[in-house]
Amino acid sequence: MILTIDPGRDALIVVDVQRDFCPGGALAVPRGDEVVPVINQLLGLGGWLAIATRDWHPPDHCSFTAQGGIWPPHCVAETPGAAFHPALDLTRVRNVISKATTRAAEAYSGFQGTDLQELLAGLGIRRVFVCGLATDYCVKATALDARKAGLDVVVLEDAIRGVEVRPGDCAAALAGMRAAGIGVARSADLRACP
Fold first, then answer.
1. In sequence order, what E strands does 7-48 have?
2. Of 10, 16, 20, 55, which one is the catalytic site residue?
3. Ordered structural domains, the chain, with CATH
4. Cβ-based neighbours of 24, under 8 Å, separated by 6 or more
């Protein structure tokens, strides 16, 4: 299945490829850094709109264990752990969307509490390709919210990695996305518009 990118209607959403989610980080996704070369190739295709989301937490965010949440402190705004992976080609990213920026609100999705939906609509985007970290949390939530917003959605399975708190979480996440009408493809299936 070959998918041709239309720069006028397609966008790439790069989800949370941040230091804290990569090996050595505070909440490392196993092999999370393996997505970076694949995403850099995707960023170089076709001159399409590329958007990167990031967790940008206050130090006392509700998701942290000290506040009763389930995660160790991670991606605290303006800290090294919140920075994007150093090898990610940010020169091709047009917009950065910060999420989960207030203490009391969790936000796995790049659409939750942000202007991402309005941004995409204003630019005439009809289809989004989603990649990044982590499959079973922020990638899934972002893809599902994109679908709820009426967009066609494709998740790029070779450009995502998951946390797998429980074995099978990533497979279940992909099954749930497919059930919601989200396509799953590989980066090799994409072609730039001639």
1. 10-15
2. 16
3. 3-55+86-98+108-191 (3.40.50.850)
4. none
- In whole angstroms, give the CA distance from residue 108 to residue 13: 14
- Residue-wise burial string across 141-159, b where 16 or more C-beta atoms lie within 10 A, e elsewhere: bbbbbbbeeebbbbbbebb
152 is catalytic: no
| pTM, rounded to two decimals | 0.97
Residue 27: alpha-carbon gap to chain centroid: 15
- Joined together, the tokens standing for residue 116 give 């991402």
H helix or E strand, kind and range, residue 174: helix 169-179
Q: What is the pLDDT along the chain (194 residues), one digit of tens a residue?
A: 799 999 999 999 999 999 999 999 999 999 999 999 999 999 999 789 999 999 999 999 999 999 999 999 999 999 999 999 999 999 999 999 999 999 999 999 999 999 999 999 999 999 999 999 999 999 999 999 999 999 999 999 999 999 999 999 999 999 999 999 999 999 999 998 87
Beta strands in 56-140 (DSSP E): 95-99, 127-133
Q: Do residues 13 and 134 touch, judged by C-beta distance below 8 A? A: no
131 is catalytic: no
Catalytic, out of 22, 138, 140, 145: 138
Report strand pairing: 190-191 vs 183-185.
unpaired
Residue with structure tokens 């605290």?
76
Catalytic residue among 10, 20, 99, 170: 99
